[in-house]
Write a structure and sequence with these properties.
By secondary structure, the protein is of the alpha/beta class. The chain contains nine helices and eleven strands. The strands form two sheets. A six-stranded parallel sheet has the order 3-2-1-4-5-6, sandwiched between helices. A five-stranded antiparallel sheet has the order 7-8-11-9-10.
Length: 215
């Protein structure tokens, strides 16, 4: 079990706090709005009305002992920056921040945030990618360049084993799992023969994944 602090309890922050707690973690939720704190207090380990721009307040709440901090302040750039700086100075091991646009993201990255997300952009990119490729069943963005897709096994692969296909060398993608009618095979062996109804779970850069999707 890990401990998290979630700062900012708008829709994004509230959801993150609730899900982290539901997954069995300790969660401290913080916001300056007492009503938002009240809404989430029944779903998290602890909740407090506090200003994360005050480092002494964060110290008093024990934020320094948390394994990870999520800065979900999206509307106020100044508050987001100050909270991130305070967390850095307190030595929180991992800091994940929400940004409202690319300029905001760049600032937070320069401050040392381990990960910066723009929720609306990531959801939009994921949706666009799946809509543009009709045979994509699921798409997960890992970075600006890499992702994971689930696609029905290309007809050209059916009846052949993974050793012969050698897609890592030939196409630059990795087959990390195969969903079959009998379950999921993680890291399938080289002698696995692709079946008609298989769903391939592939990891690679977007250009390589697009080639596979068009087979």
């Amino acid at each position: 079990m890990k401990s998290y602090v979630v700062i900012g309890l708008g829709r994004f922050g509230e959801r993150v706090a609730q899900q982290l707690c539901a997954l069995g973690n300790e969660v401290l939720a913080i916001d300056t709005d007492a009503d938002l704190v009240q809404q989430v207090c029944g779903y998290v380990t602890n909740a407090a009305v506090a200003d994360a721009q005050d480092k002494d307040v964060l110290m008093a709440l024990g934020v320094k002992e948390c394994d990870c901090a999520v800065v979900a302040i999206g509307d106020s750039l100044a508050a987001s920056i100050m909270a991130t700086m305070n967390l850095q100075e307190l030595g929180v091991p991992r800091i994940v921040c929400k940004a409202k646009d690319d300029a905001h993201r760049k600032v937070l990255e320069k401050l040392g945030a381990d990960r910066v997300v723009i929720p609306e952009k990531e959801v939009a990119d994921r949706l666009a990618h799946s809509l543009a490729s009709a045979n994509v069943l699921e798409y997960i963005e890992l970075s600006r360049d890499y992702g994971i897709v689930e696609v029905p096994a290309p007809q050209k692969w059916v009846g052949r084993n993974l050793r012969d296909l050698n897609v890592r060398a030939k196409m630059g993608v990795n087959i990390i799992a195969v969903r079959t009618s009998h379950g999921v095979k993680i890291s399938p062996p080289a002698d696995y023969v692709v079946n008609q109804d298989d769903v391939m779970v592939l990891l690679g850069d977007y250009d390589a994944l697009t080639v596979v999707q068009n087979l």
